[in-house]
Specification:
With 331 residues, the protein is an alpha/beta fold. The protein has two domains: 165 residues, 3-Layer(aba) Sandwich (Rossmann fold), CATH 3.40.50; 132 residues, Rossmann fold (3-Layer(aba) Sandwich). It is 41% helix and 18% strand. The strands form two sheets. Strands 2-1-3-4-6-5-10 form a seven-stranded mixed beta sheet, sandwiched between helices. It has a five-stranded mixed beta sheet with strand order 7-9-8-11-12, sandwiched between helices. Strand 8, helix 9 and strand 9 form a beta-alpha-beta unit. It starts with 12 loop residues before the first helix and ends with a helix.
Length: 331
């Protein structure tokens, strides 16, 4: 008896699902595929080669460079490579790239419009047990205020693959916000991605939930399902391009539902919520409730799930917050 074996395209939604991949896995794969297509693509490591960097190192050893835990050096080196026509991908902790090496990112990359991509891992509170030294709730705020910097936050491993390829084709500096572990899959292969884009994942007329990034978008989708059972119709927007932002979808959502709640695994100051509020205040004023990490360092060490609950970013907390806002503004 013989059967038919279906070959899945690497990076496709079914391929990601079958192999249980994380966003960093697919980002690394996309970097490798970009290198296959363009010999200018180079991998620059901040001592994270064991997080998916080995295949690139084995296939293109002359284009693979590990600088160790020296983020300022590796950003400066990447900028130098870009001036010589290379397209470096910096692979390091997002928080370390944008805090420890902030000056180099600001001046060497953003100011000079260097064609360098930062794949920032361990963002948000995914490094739960490591505590405040490794939590990263400031990166979006820092990256998006730098002129010339594009800021992308994939919602899952499928989006991470697609947006990494988008970043590779974009001329100029890009910050990609990633996690480390596999997360719930949001996307199939029917969606497209671009710099300055967004995707509407669910329609609703009572409230719009705008989310970006790993876990947060999946949480927003799950929360919308729970809210539907309560008679609340929630539109869900994945604002994966935080800068430049899709102003049209935000204005349309504000006008359609009259209420927006943002969800992000980032400080409630300066990230997705602030981006949305800036657009809505100027073009379609409606109430905006921002759900994010509180303006404090973690006082307790715990798992990722425990940290999400502490910040009110688990599904139950998001459902409760959105329901509260809908009831408040329906009066």
């Amino acid at each position: 008896m013989t059967g038919t074996v279906t070959r899945l395209e690497p990076g496709s939604a079914d391929w990601v699902r079958r192999h249980g991949l994380s966003a960093i896995d697919t980002c690394r794969l996309a970097q490798l595929h970009a290198a296959d297509a363009d010999d200018r693509v180079t991998s620059i490591e901040g001592d994270l080669g064991d997080c998916g960097g080995e295949p690139f190192a084995e296939r293109y050893p002359e284009r693979y460079h590990d600088f160790g835990i020296a983020e300022a050096n590796l950003v400066g080196a990447a900028a130098g490579m870009a001036t010589r026509g290379k397209i470096p991908f910096i692979n390091t902790f997002g928080g370390f790239a944008l805090t420890r090496a902030c000056e180099q990112v600001r001046l060497d990359l953003a100011y000079h419009q260097a064609n360098v991509k930062i794949a920032g891992t361990f963002t948000g509170i995914v490094a739960g047990f490591s505590g405040p030294t490794h939590h990263c709730g400031e990166d979006l705020a820092i990256a998006r205020v730098m002129p010339n910097m594009v800021v992308l936050a994939p919602a899952d491993a499928v989006a991470a693959y697609r947006l990494t390829r988008v970043a590779a084709r974009h001329q100029g500096p890009v910050y990609l916000r990633l996690g480390i572990d596999p997360t719930d899959q949001v996307y199939d292969d029917s969606f497209s991605f671009r710099v300055g884009g967004s995707n509407v994942l669910r329609e609703g007329e009572d409230v719009t939930i705008v989310a970006a990034g790993l876990t947060s978008v999946a949480t927003a989708v799950a929360a919308a399902g729970c809210l539907a059972a309560r008679g609340v119709g929630a539109r869900v927007v994945d604002l994966y391009s935080i800068k430049p932002v899709d102003r049209d979808v935000l204005v349309e959502s504000a006008e359609r539902t009259g209420l927006i709640v943002t969800v992000e695994e980032h400080s409630a100051i300066g990230g997705v919520g602030s981006t949305v509020a800036e657009v809505v205040a100027a073009e379609a004023p409606v109430p905006v409730r921002m759900l994010g990490m509180p303006d404090e360092y973690a006082h307790e060490i715990g798992s990722y799930e425990a940290q999400l609950r502490r910040c009110g970013l688990d599904v139950d907390s998001v459902v409760a917050a959105v329901d509260e806002e809908v009831r408040r503004w329906r009066k």
